[in-house]
Amino acid sequence: MIKPDGVQRGLIGDILKRFEQKGFQLLAAKLMTPSREHMEKHYADLAGKGFFKGMIDYMMTGPVFCMVWAGDGAVVTGRKMLGATKPSESEPGTIRGDFCIQIGRNICHGSDSVENAEKEIELWFPEGVCSWTSHSQGWIYE
Question: Annotated binding residue at 96?
Fold first, then answer.
């Protein structure tokens, strides 16, 4: 998901491009302004943290761009592409390393496991995702 700071700064295209160029396949995407309840459900695992309320308040400041990407190692590699949660610890060449400075404006959320990705896909895309075969598949996978 591209957070409100990434949407407001016009980074959707740049971020999409990185995942497409890597070879991942886009299965679903939408721009939306989720409800507070929706965001609290998404970040429920962080509910006990001191920063939770401020984070939810921030996530309510504008639309987010939700995406589902598929491909070998999409979760692990996708998180590497995002960079460390703290932008100051993100390597140059990562999304956070290239586009942000502070943790409270760290551009993206990425699922931390396949299991959590499946839960998040169900939350954000209850209508389901597309299933299709890319003509480039043979050029990406052996």
Answer: yes
Cα–Cα distance between 67 and 27 in angstroms, integer? 8
| Strand boundaries in 1-142, DSSP class E | 25-32, 64-70
Please give the CATH topology (third level) of the domain spanning 4-139. Answer: Alpha-Beta Plaits (3.30.70)
* 136 phi/psi in degrees, rounded to 5: -90, -5
Which residue stretches of the chain have pLDDT < 50? none
- Point out the residues that are catalytic: 109
Please give the structure tokens belonging to residue 24: 């991942």
| Per-residue pLDDT at 112 | 95
pLDDT of residue 3: 98
The neighbour count for residue 114, using CB atoms within 10 Å, is: 10
52 known ligand binder:
no
